[in-house]
Specification:
Blueprint (H helix, E strand, L loop, with lengths): L7 E8 L3 H10 L5 E4 L26 H10 L2 E3 L21 E2 L12 H18 L1 E7 L2 E5 L5 H8 L5 E4 L2 E5 L12 H4 L3 H7 L6 E4 L2 E8 L2 E8 L2 E12 L3 H12 L5 E5 L2 E8 L14 E5 L6 E7 L2 H10 L7 H6 L4 E8 L6 E6 L2 E6 L4 H18 L3 E8 L9 E2 L17 E2 L2 E6 L14 H16 L1
Amino acid sequence: MQKKQSNEYLDTVIIGSGLSALNFIETYSKKKKINVISPNFNFKLSGGEIEEIKFLPSQMRNKKTQVENYFIGNNLKKTKNCKIIGSLDQGGLSNYWGLQIDNYINLDDQRINKKTKNEINKSFFELLKGCKLLGNFEFKKKIYSNEYKIPNYLEELKKKKFRNFNLQKPILAFNKLLKNKDLNSLNENKNKLNSSNFIKLKKLKSRVHLHNYYLEGMCRVGKKIKLICKNREGYKIFIANKVILAAGTIATTKIIMEFLNVKHEVKIKHHPRLISVYFGKKKIKSNLKFTPSLIQFIGKGKDNQFSADFRPGNKLITESMLELSKLLYPFKFLINFVKDRLIFSNILLSSKYSGLYIKNNKSKFYIYTKKNFLLNKLKEANFKTFSFLLKNKLIFPFFKTHFPGIGSDFHYFGTLSINNNSKLSVNEKCQLKNHKNIYIVDSSVFNFKSNKYPLGIVMANARRIGKLLSK
């Protein structure tokens, strides 16, 4: 029998414990503890069925239970052709992903005013400096630099001028000052900017009061917000003066759709992805288990609908290749032998090619895709990338591609964007329209058309809102 618990009254509550939530906390609360609702348990929840998960990326191994819990706990169901994964556990996907961040901010949405854009740029600069992230960034003649080395032939290529493309090094989400600029000197577990390391770096543990629940739903009680939460022990009700949603786009969108009783389908923006592998003419030696991209190939003008990154082969990627195709197993030794010559790329399309939707159907939230022609567009982008590498004599004339499915890019955003004039929108302060004590600080408030690795912008914006609310 589940215990009946009395209501608990709180001032400010954050939903989610990923990097956007933690950046908000750092700038919002300097002294008092802040309440965070986020699941942190490894047993399988009951009461739901999801499509069998046949493949998880290598860095997410042994996390099947948490993935299943995400769908069950958030009352989400996806169709078979929809390959989203979603947050895995306390801290979200950033514990396993997010190795690179765009070193440019292009908020090309005209609905966001210049002041907000400047504040996000300023917060981004502060984030880089405060976390000692690797890379370079310039804002209003202020330059941040924590340089890292890439192979000389890539560095020389980056200096050239190309009509249709830019080449640039991303920001790498590792917090370390590199004296010798050598990425192989990194300690992946210690230096990666994930949630657990961010908490240690910013000494946030004493400022976080974690409530180990999923948020099942919320509603108004007068001027306050009632939060209905659940875990293995049963239900818990929190009554909050202010709610900050940082649960990731899909969970946040579901919560808001239910709160506002939205019945129509909502498009989830994302960057459709194609994985490509090329055989390089030169070796790139890397000791890292999972190597970030060393350079980004970014289209401009008519070609700005896609970008590609280049990263050397590594153990985790080659293991993923073998898991995806059993036919490659006899060649396992050979693949690992030549992995230093393999160049892997994530080719990402603009959000205009998004193909994910969410809809409330009889209190069950379905995530699905529609018929589209994404694969042809992705293959076209891959051929441009391949042609570029071949023309510059970096690879041999063959390649292999893999389309992991619609939604497998893990970049979800744009469902509750700033100033879009619908009830599913927020203002410049990221307040939900007509609900001034509900704020949203995750990626759902942006439409990232040009930026393909926007984690840094999301964190910067969360910091901006934290500072605004701390005043």
